[in-house]
Known about the structure:
The complex is a heterodimer.
Chain A: H1 11-27, H2 40-49, E1 52-58, E2 82-84, E3 91-93, H3 97-100, E4 106-112, H4 119-128, H5 141-148, E5 159-163, E6 184-187, H6 203-224, H7 227-244, H8 256-262, H9 266-279, E7 284-289, H10 298-322, E8 329-334, E9 338-339, E10 351-352, E11 356-362, E12 369-371, E13 373-374, E14 381-383, H11 388-398, E15 406-409, E16 412-415
Parallel strand pairs in A: 1-7, 1-8, 4-12, 5-6, 5-7
Antiparallel strand pairs in A: 2-3, 4-11, 8-11, 9-10, 13-14, 15-16
Helix pairs in contact in A: 4-11, 8-9, 9-10
Chain B: E1 8-15, E2 20-25, E3 31-36, E4 41-45, E5 51-54, E6 61-66, E7 72-77, E8 81-86, E9 96-99, E10 105-110, E11 116-121, E12 125-130, E13 136-141, E14 147-152, E15 158-163, E16 167-172, E17 178-183, E18 188-191, E19 196-199, E20 203-207, E21 212-223, E22 228-237, E23 243-248, E24 256-262, E25 268-273, E26 279-283, E27 292-295, E28 300-305, E29 311-316, E30 320-326
Amino acid sequence: MKCTYECGSAEHTVARRQFLGGLAAGAGMFIGGLDTFATPAAVAQMTRDQKRLIIVRMHGGLSQLESWDPKPNTDTGGPFRAIPTSVPGIHISELLPYTAKQMHHLALVRGINTKNDDHGKGTYMMLTGRHPTPGQTFPELGAVVARAMDNSALTLPGHINIANGGSGGRNNDAAYLGPKYASISLGGAQPPAYTTRPANLTEQTVQQQDEFRRKANDRFAGRRRTAETDAYVQSFEQAQELVRQRDVFDLSKEPQKDHERYGTHEFGKHCLLARRLVEKGVTCVQVSHSNYDTHNENFEFHFEQLGEFDRPFATLVGDLAERGLLQHTMIVVLSEFGRTPRINQYYGRDHWGHAFSVCMGGAGLQRGAVVGKTNANGTAVTERQVDAGHLFHTYLRALGLNSRHHFNIGGQKQPMADPAFAAIDELIA
Amino acid sequence: MPADPKQAHVAREFVHGAPLITCRFDPKSRYVFATGEDRAIIRWDLASGAKTEFKAHDSWVRAMVFSTDGQFLVTAGCDDMLMWWPVAAEKPEPVRKVKAHNGWIRAVAVSTDGQFLASAGNDRIVKLWKMADGAPVREMPGHEKDIYSLQFHPSGLHLLSADLKGTVHQWEVATGKLVRTFDAKDLYSYNGGQGVDFGGVRSLALGPGNKHLACGGLYQASNPLGAVHEPIVLRFDWESQKVLKKHVSTDIKNGVIWRTLFLPDGMLVGCSGGGAGGILLFWGENDEKPMHQFKLPDTAREMDLHPDGLQLATVHYGKKLIITKLAPKEAPKEVKK
């Protein structure tokens, strides 16, 4: 397939390759992100303007009643109490005492109804803002944002998924946007695998190999350039950047006191790495926390899981705010659905997409806001009901994007967000 | 008359407006108490069936215990509070409230001489209190996971505490010193796929002649978040600490022993809840599989034994307290016309 670029030319990629090539020739091994590659003034401008996104996925379906929309002392409320937050009038579950102190940086949407109780569909809806349609796959939020905010100065991958497993592979979450915007898995808070230069290769040898590869590529591209060959070239260059900027992913570079503040468990490390990555200029970082699919003993498991989640998440929010990054960084805590208000025979809660909540904050969002309301025992949305599609538009708007915009994919217009929905205007600052 | 599990039958039912959590008979056999998901403590008069609600906790009440003279009930809440109540009060109000823990209190126990109250829960600290006035006596830290169960040794010298990981500590009451530890790790598992700790010693019991320690809970937890696990009771030899027997079920694939206790004749009984419903399991000392199982009408969540040794109270998700009698059904009384 012959490639077609959004602006109608091949200039972007050529400029990007020249830029990277020049850097490769001149800079040798790089440490750091944007600050390594541009003038201080340009870095300052870029750092100031670049929007970033952190998605925290609560796998399995976080209970809204044990988190953002507690209903204490009702037939569905369970054993936990609600506590006041730093925003007068907003109460959240007592399982989130640290997060409660950061509520003035955050906002809650309490009236989500996706009418879906299925894990796969719910994940798809919450991450793409679309309802599943046979034969069609849409890109996830991270890929959309990485694509929409792509620019030639960004040398790091735009979309990183910090996971518990192995690292290095591309995930299948970019759909028609292509593999360039698919998330790269970073497992175990470790730098990507195979990013150290083999000991038997000298730096000079690597450079010679690279020069040869470039010449061969340019010659081939002069006659048979396609979108696929561009993707290969881009992937190779990005891999080179990962090798050169390996330290960006090295959590040991963070101060010991920060490791202690975030906690030594996996989720704590992942939150600290998320902070490091957005500071270094990565556009979208996904972090996950498991597992909230608590059909059995919901309260014990939420006690345990949210006890682990609360402090590092709150520390991350506080740090982003303190470092001036929160005004450019949106953070979203989402789940494929919530959990049933009804408590089952095993003290569990089941799947429930009919009245649940999302927490978000930063970038262009109102701080300390609550939109939407559920009834007294949380069984139905009573005010400002929204769908995953509304949320998707809201995320994009808060990041300064026009969610009505289209991508130009092979000459075809693809809406960034489902045109059937709109942003939650009252959440946009 | 000794209990006869094979004659088990539902003798009475008491109904509440919310699913129930735990239950206890009072030592004087006047009442049976339960707690509910509506945060209430419910007292039923066994003679008249009259129902009275005690309300003061700001959360669920997961454990209850009586003073040895039967005058006071101490309730332990997920609101971190211990509350003392006059058992027989017409309009019950707590006479004492103590903010006892940081996190749920899951278990309470009273020493045989009635002097001490022990409490423990999610803050992983065993605490000892004076029963008479609620004054703190000492704290015994040392558990690495949430504490689920407590049991005083009838000698009054020792206290047992058991946790999520299957660690059972034996403490010296007089000093708070850790004497030794029983290993009931068979009742615990970590599920890497789901990323959860699961299981724990849900119940402790001593008998017969205090020569055996029973630890109830679950095993074969292939899906903790989905409630796929089987009930089990480990029987330890008190002296050697060896596991003498693993008492399991015949066919329960979705169950957990919420409580285990010994009948006066030494028979071990376990109350299983979970997907398989409510089931009472009875084991002799050498039985791996129960000599008898009695199916209850609904999922059970806790159990207690009447002082007569013949009646078992169980509380249920279906908002009922059921009394099962371990004796032949009484013949219907003839009604004079």
